[in-house]
Each structure stands twice: as structure tokens, then as C-alpha cells.
Amino acid sequence: MQTIFIMVKCELGKAYRVADTAVLDIEQISEVHSISGQYDLLMKCYLDDKQDIGHFVTEKVQTLPGVKDTFTLITFKAFK
After folding, report:
1. Closest CA to 61 of 10, 2, 3, 1
2. CATH number of the domain encompassing residue 51
3. Could you give phi then psi for residue 61, rounded to 5 degrees?
4. Domain-embedded: residue 80
5. CB-based burial of residue 7 (10 Å sphere; 0-12 exposed, 13-18 middle, 19+ buried)?
6. Total structural domains within the chain
7. pLDDT tens-digit profile of 4-51?
8. Cα–Cα separations (whole angstroms), residue 68 to 9, 43, 59, 65
9. What is the dihedral sign for C-alpha 55, 60, 71, 28?
10. Rg (CA), the chain
11. How far is the C-alpha of 44 from the C-alpha of 30, rounded, in Å?
12. What is the pTM of this model?
């Protein structure tokens, strides 16, 4: 299992709609948080080890209505 975080910039006024759609429609997204700064949302995703991260981000997340831009962070190790 691989964990990635995706920061999402949304069209004006669309952040809540994007968050709701992401959680309901994409099973790999476990959490969505609204954040301040350059991006509007932070998505925590769990992907199968064999799933291609690039395809997941470009085909599942970037195609959500209201998404303008994304920035993906790939994790290596989780600490408790």
C-alpha cells in the first residue's frame, strides 16, 4: 500500500463540491481537508502498490469538476 497526499487548487467557490465528490466517488481517497494558502484542499490517498500514481492523479483527481491544479506528495515512511 502506498500513501500519497494531493494538494488541490479549485475554481472559485467549488472547493466544497470538489471535496464532497472526491470522497464519494473515489474509493482511494480516505480524507479531504480544507486548507489555507496556495491550495484549497489536501487529499490523503491510499493506493495499491501496483497502481500507477500518475495515472491515478491525472485520470481520477484532475478530472473532477472544479479542479484547476494539483500538487502531489509521495510518502516514503509513516512514523507514529
Report:
1. 10
2. 3.30.70.920
3. -90, -50
4. no
5. middle
6. 1
7. 999 999 999 999 999 999 999 999 999 999 999 999 999 999 999 999
8. 5, 15, 14, 9
9. negative
10. 12
11. 6
12. 0.94
For residue 80, pLDDT over 90 is answered with no
Q: Is 14 helix (H, G, I), strand (E, B) or coil?
A: coil
60 in a domain, yes or no?
yes
The three three-digit cell numbers of residue 18, written as one number: 470538489
What residues make up the domain containing 9? 2-74
Model pLDDT for residues 59-75, shown as the tens digit of each residue: 999 999 999 999 999 99
79 part of a folded domain: no
The grid coordinates of residue 20 equal: 464532497
Asked if the structure places residue 69 within a domain, the reply is yes
- Angle at alpha carbon of residue 74, lines to 73 and 75, rounded to 5°: 115
